[in-house]
């Protein structure tokens, strides 16, 4: 249950940030018939940026595998992120970051 609460917290904080700064963008959730899932997709500036939300402090690259599903869509995929309990901002690979929850 704590994972679901964390996801709701992160989504609401990102939504509040958009509202408080006057930024625009669409927020989406993705799941297909093959059970590929992305916790949050931010659509803005003509691209989609996928976000995975996890309780772990040591996320692996397998968590961003579902991000590849967005490459089939009409909009280009921007940088992705795993928002988790890690203490420092780090890069997972060339297109994905590991973002501490406190940074949102």
Please summarize what this structure is.
The protein has 104 residues and is an alpha/beta fold.
Give an overview in words.
The structure is a single chain. The chain contains one helix and six strands. Helix content is 19%, strand content 32%. The protein is an alpha/beta fold and 104 residues long. The chain is globular and about 35 Å long. The chain has one domain: Trna Endonuclease, Chain: A, domain 1, CATH 3.40.1350. It starts with a helix and ends with a strand.
Count of strand segments: 6
CATH fold group: Trna Endonuclease, Chain: A, domain 1
Broad shape: globular
Rg calc: 13 Å
- Sheet with the most strands: spatial strand order: 1-2-3-4-6-5
Mean model confidence by pLDDT: 91
How far apart the termini lie comes to 21 Å
Largest sheet: 6 strands, mixed
Instruction: Please give the share of residues in helix.
Output: 10-25%
Output the keywords.
alpha/beta, 104 residues, 6 strands, 1 helix, Trna Endonuclease, Chain: A, domain 1
């Amino acid at each position: 249950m704590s994972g679901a609460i964390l996801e709701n917290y992160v989504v609401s904080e990102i939504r509040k940030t958009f509202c408080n700064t006057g930024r625009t963008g669409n927020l989406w959730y993705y799941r297909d018939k093959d059970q590929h899932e992305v916790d949050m997709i931010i659509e803005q500036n003509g691209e989609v940026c996928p976000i995975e939300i996890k309780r772990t402090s040591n996320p692996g690259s397998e968590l961003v595998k579902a991000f590849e599903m967005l490459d089939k869509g009409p909009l280009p995929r921007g940088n992705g992120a795993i928002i988790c309990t890690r203490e420092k901002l780090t890069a997972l690979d060339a297109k994905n970051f590991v973002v501490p929850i406190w940074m949102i």
